[in-house]
Amino acid sequence: MSPDETVTAFMQAVQAKDLDAAMALAAADIEYDNVPMETAYGAEATRTMLESFVGMSEEIDWVVHHQVAAGDIVMNERTDRFRSGERWLEIPVAGVWRVEDGLITLWRDYFDLEGLMKQMSGEG
Amino acid sequence: MSPDETVTAFMQAVQAKDLDAAMALAAADIEYDNVPMETAYGAEATRTMLESFVGMSEEIDWVVHHQVAAGDIVMNERTDRFRSGERWLEIPVAGVWRVEDGLITLWRDYFDLEGLMKQMSGEG
Description:
Chain A is α+β, with helices and mostly antiparallel strands. In chain A, 31% of the residues lie in helices and 47% in strands. Chain A has one domain: Nuclear Transport Factor 2, Chain: A (Roll), CATH 3.10.450. In chain A, strand 3 (59-70) and strand 4 (73-84) form a beta hairpin.
C-alpha cells in the first residue's frame, strides 16, 4: 500500500471500530498528536486514546474532503463525525500523517478544542 | 506558477508585508476561512483581515513544516509566527488552499483559537 492508501485503510478500520486492524497499520513508536490536547506516544497510548472515543461513539463517520500525499507525508481535510444516541458531534479537522515502511509513525490532527467542547456540552 | 508555487509566493508576500503582491495572487472571489473564527469572502474582506494582523506585527515569519499539492489543492502544516515588540506569537496551523487559473480561490486555516488567545493574553 502507498502512504495514501495506508492512511485511508487506517481511517476505515477506526470507522469500523476494528482497532486490531487499525493498529496493525501503526508503527510501535507512532506519535498521535491532538494538537490542542495531549500527545500519545507509542502504539499502546495511541490505542488507549482511540478506545476512549470509539467507546463513546455508537457510529463513526469521517468525511474526507481532500487528501494529498507526497513522499512519506499525507495530509487530509476532514469532518470527523461521532454519533452518540441521536446526536452527532462534527469536528472540522486537518490532519498530517507520516507513513514509513508501510506503517503510520505520525498522526497529528489540527482542530479547535473550544468548538469541540461546545458541541460536547450541547452549546455548539 | 504551479498551485504549490503560487501558495509559496503568496505566503512570502505576506511575510514581506507586501499585500499588493499577495493580493495579486488571490482571485476576486477568494474565500479566506479561519475555521474557529470568521470567514472573509472576497478579495476586499480578505485584504482587510490580512491588514489587521500585518498591522499588529513588526515581523512575520511563517515556518512551513510540510507542503503537499495535488491538482488544484495545496495543503501545508505551518508554525505562523508574529512578532510584536520582543514577543513572538507562534500559532500551529494546518492550511488548505485551492488555486485555480493561477489564483488562490480558497485559503482555510485550522488552528486552536483558545491556544492563540492564551498566547495573546500572555498566559500561553
